[in-house]
Amino acid sequence: MTKHEIILDPITRIEGHMGVHAVLDDEKKKVVESHCYSTMFRGFEKILVGREPSDAIFITQRICGVCPVVHAYASALANDMALNAPPPPLAISLRDLTDCAELLYDHAIHLFQLAGPEYSEAILSKFNRSWIDKAREYKCEYKDIHGYSTMYDLLKALNPLEGQLYLYTLKLEREARKLASLLGAKHPHINTFVPGGIARKWGISETEKALSLIFVLAGLAKLTVAVWEDISKFLYDAVNYDEVGIRAANLLCYGTVDDPESYNAKYEDMDLWGEKRLFTPGVVINGELITTKLKEIHLNVRQDISHSYYEKWDKEVDEDLEGNKIAVEHPWNKDTIHKPQSRDWNGKYSWGTAPRWLKNGELYALEAGPIARLYVSALAGKAVVTSPWAEVKTGNGEIRISLPETKSEMLKPSLVEAKEFKWKVPSLKLEDGTPAINTIERNRARAYCHAYYSAISFAVTYNAISFIERGEVNVWEPFTKPNFSMGVGLNEAARGALGHWIIVKDGKIHRYQIITPSAWNISPKDRLDNPGPMEEAIKDTPITEESDPRSWTGIDILRIVRSYDPCLACTVHVFIKKSNINYCKRKVIA
User: Fold this and answer.
1) What's the rounded mean pLDDT across residues 167-190?
2) Is residue 363 within 8 Å of residue 302, measured between CB atoms?
3) Which of 212, 179, 209 is nearest to 102 (CA)?
4) DSSP SS3 for 423
């Protein structure tokens, strides 16, 4: 049996600074060992210490230009709680809509410009040539929406820089940027989120502008679902891509989009306003919904550094605001103490930490992302989205999304008609019968999440109209900064569960910790040598490249990685000199 190593570093078409080390079995054509690692040190948590609490809202946005709003949102939530500064209802709706705007561009750009090219005719012609013949014969079920009769035509439209879908969706994605800029004064790095509300007046004229953009983006959502439904069906039916990136359905969702009538930023009410979110918070273990209580989810978060370039820290916080015990590995206790050293696949090999979730004494490597959002909401059946234009219904393992007629000169005629889409919890199973998810379902879920956020945008806008009509136009409430306090802001970035934790002492930031969704997903092994979600998804995955093993480039590994849409700028931030970057370096080891 011959094996060889492959190192993919850096990985392109993600927000960089990530590498994958894998060992491939040439005869069995599968991955037998994997390590995912961050190549740069995270420093924002140290930068924030000693500053004004509200500074965190603006500084943490600079973590990433791809997803700044979600960091502003999480930081604002943490500040609201720590400073006892609940926003007025209209401000909550406007925060929600800004968040939706960012997700509506982010999901689309991932599916058409970042992950999409991996399935394009240009890429398949190099690595999976037999797929091309099958694509020519494969008829698209959703051709009346996206306009392509055969899969070959659809995949050719995904070709980077020249395909019709690649270019057309770029044009529509700008409308989401415009919406975010309308609400945030600019984008990326918005200026309007502050503790206790937003720093921007809002009226009917602004609402009309926002609504016109939302209708265009609803047309984009119809296109996105149609395209990725057909691609998913092709990957299942024609090329048997089921086993690539498969792992047990162990998932984390913090929930997002707050109910303006329920959210009050109070720690003691966290479960109440958490379950009113339009995406329901929850943890799924082996396909079973374990909890939807946001406080329980928060209290059981842990960070492990056994395989990370950090040193241990001392426990400082014994209890939360209600007397619940706080573990030393909890973010309210964690300090960021970096310790650079050489890479050791059996020891420390990543600048990323290993976030885990504790339940009954066991640590779980939970996967974050659109698949987690849909999975939790579908099982919980708590989220209901309604407006005169669009709606979402959840429950019994299903999500139904209704989008309205969308007339616009920017949209093709096939995207005008009102549509209803249905997403179901995947029926995938591991060999032992455990419910599972794979690379196909991660991308497919992102398409449906785009439609879900489109429906939410209509509902949030309708709420804003109602508040304005009632004269409830206040967008900020004053507050008094305490000498000591604690706060946590949990929401959903495009890539999944995002958490900000803050401790304020003497009116300044004493501690600030951030766990991004990519930190969950690309985490290294923990102290028990349990792999992170992406490492687990890569291990044992089949290799589909149609070439000699010595020519393998790791295209299937890259498809798995990009199905998570990792953002390493959110995970690691400060460049270390003399870093050694290699791409596709191989050596025979057996």
Assistant:
1) 95
2) yes
3) 179
4) strand
Q: Which helix (H) or strand (E) holds 125?
A: helix 121-127
Q: Residue 27: what pLDDT?
A: 95
Q: Which amino acid is at 569?
A: A
Res 569: pLDDT: 58
In sequence order, the 6+-apart residues with CB closer than 8 A to the CB of 205 are none
**Residue 300: CATH number of its domain:** 1.10.645.10
**Range of 314's domain?**
3-588
Report the amino acid identity of residue 262.
S
Which of 181, 222, 168, 210 minimizes the C-alpha distance to 410?
Answer: 168
Residue 458 makes CB contacts below 8 A (sequence gap 6+) with: 214, 218, 387, 388, 389, 390, 404
Mean pLDDT confidence for 285-299 = 98
How far, in Å, are 27, 166, 171, 262, 404 from residue 218 at the CA level? 47, 18, 14, 27, 8
The amino acid sitting at 553 is T
Look at strands 585-588 and 3-8 and give their pairing.
antiparallel
Give the total number of structural domains in the chain.
1
Q: Is the pLDDT of residue 472 over 70?
A: yes
Tell me: pLDDT of 227 over 60.
yes
Q: Is the pLDDT of residue 41 over 80?
A: no
Strand order in the sheet with 18-25: 30-38, 18-25, 3-8, 585-588
Spell 554-590 as b/e; 16+ CB within 10 A means b. bbbbbbbbbbbbbbbbbbbbeeeeeeeeeeeeeeeee
Mean pLDDT of 137-158: 98
Buried b (16+ CB within 10 A) or exposed e, 97-121: bbbbbbbbbbbbbbbbbbbbbbbbb
Is 582 a residue whose pLDDT tops 90?
no
Is pLDDT of 586 > 50?
no
